[in-house]
């Protein structure tokens, strides 16, 4: 059963990488919708004028998560990073002025964030023994 779950993590990893990398074209090129979204967020966080820095920082983090999740030896790190990024995205959709459907397209962005979060959680669950070992070995960093 454990082996089957780990094999299924390939599908989850591919989905995570696909979703995260798909949206990079908007973040990295300064697409109008992406600029608007991050302007709403930075203004809500009282970081007026820092839209570009936040947008590009999120883009770099998502690219990093995409690469890490695709490599078997770094999959848990990529999944953990993707889970953290998507937790932030879900939080902002729920509690900021963005709302669940900022583009009025049936909440596609929010839905993909939730599915990506679930895939990342699935990977961490499938590799729970390895995740536990990493946490125990690096517990000094968690203090």
What do you see in this structure?
With 143 residues, the chain is mostly helical. The protein contains 6 helices and no strands. The radius of gyration is 16 Å and the shape is elongated.
Number of helices: 6
Low-confidence blocks of residues:
none
Radius of gyration: 16 Å
Structural class: mainly alpha
| Total strands | 0
Strand portion? under 5%
Shape: elongated
Query: How far is the N terminus from the C terminus?
Result: 34 Å
Q: What is the makeup of the main sheet?
A: none
Secondary-structure element pattern, one letter each: HHHHHH
- Mean pLDDT figure: 95
Offer a concise description of the structure:
With 143 residues, the chain is an all-alpha fold.
Record the SSE blueprint.
Blueprint: H1 2-29, H2 32-44, H3 51-70, H4 75-95, H5 108-126, H6 128-137
Helix pairs in contact: 1-3, 1-5, 2-3, 3-4, 4-5
């Amino acid at each position: 059963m454990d082996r089957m779950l780990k094999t299924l993590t390939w599908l989850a990893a591919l989905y995570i990488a696909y979703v995260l990398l798909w949206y990079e074209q908007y973040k990295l090129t300064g697409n109008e919708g992406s600029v608007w979204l991050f302007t709403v967020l930075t203004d809500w966080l009282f970081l007026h004028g820092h839209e570009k820095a936040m947008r590009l920082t999120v883009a770099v983090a998502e690219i990093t998560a995409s690469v890490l999740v695709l490599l078997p030896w770094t999959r848990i790190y990529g999944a953990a990073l993707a889970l953290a990024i998507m937790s932030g995205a879900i939080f902002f959709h729920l509690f900021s002025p963005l709302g669940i459907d900022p583009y009025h397209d049936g909440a596609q962005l929010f839905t993909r964030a939730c599915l990506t979060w679930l895939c990342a959680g699935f990977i961490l669950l499938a590799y729970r023994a390895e995740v536990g070992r990493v946490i125990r070995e690096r517990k000094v960093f968690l203090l």
